[in-house]
Amino acid sequence: MRLADINTPELEFCYGEEAKDRLEELVGGKRVKLSEIFRGSHERSIALVHVGDKLINEVMAREGYGRVTSTYTTQAKHLREEGDIARQGKIGLYSEVCSQKVTPDPKCAIKVNINQAGSSKDLYVSWVWCILRHYCAARY
């Protein structure tokens, strides 16, 4: 079961283990109630998850363990507002732990986005970035 409207990081990415641990703490061994259940693009079940009166999707968004990335449920707007609280407070995924660091030499600022698939194209981009970084360091 996946959390509706929330995208938590994969385990190997920043805050992935923390998100997994927090979710286990919130739902592990507890009776959960699912609402607004549907199937996603990969045929996975997706829902709003409740433990008692607590909406787990909301907790994960507010505490910065996941990003609100969709608007599939009636709670999507509320979840986005909770995610904004985490982002503005620099909590969880939005903290300095997962933020891109500023390069010490602004003349050599290179930003590269690597997708989560880890394709060879991405590895090539990483390799090029490494060469450019050394080039800039030698040149400036």
CATH architecture annotation name of the largest domain: Beta Barrel
Q: In the CATH hierarchy, what is the class of the largest domain?
A: Mainly Beta
Distance between the termini: 51 Å
Total domain modules: 2
Provide an overview of this structure.
Helix content is 37%, strand content 16%. With 140 residues, the protein is α+β, with helices and mostly antiparallel strands. The longest helix has 20 residues. Strand 3 and strand 4 form a beta hairpin. The protein folds into 2 domains: 93 residues, OB fold (Dihydrolipoamide Acetyltransferase, E2P), CATH 2.40.50.90; 34 residues, no CATH class. It is globular.
Keywords:
140 residues, alpha+beta, OB fold (Dihydrolipoamide Acetyltransferase, E2P), 2 domains, four-stranded mixed β-sheet, 6 strands, 37% helix
Write the layout of secondary structure elements.
Blueprint: E1 2-3, E2 6-7, H1 16-27, E3 33-39, E4 45-51, E5 54-55, H2 56-62, E6 67-68, H3 76-88, H4 120-139
Parallel strand pairs: 1-4
Antiparallel strand pairs: 2-6, 3-4, 4-5
Helix pairs in contact: 2-3
Characterize this entry briefly.
The protein is α+β, with helices and mostly antiparallel strands and 140 residues long. The protein has 2 domains: 2-94, OB fold (Dihydrolipoamide Acetyltransferase, E2P), CATH 2.40.50.90; 106-139, no CATH class. The protein is 37% helix and 16% strand.
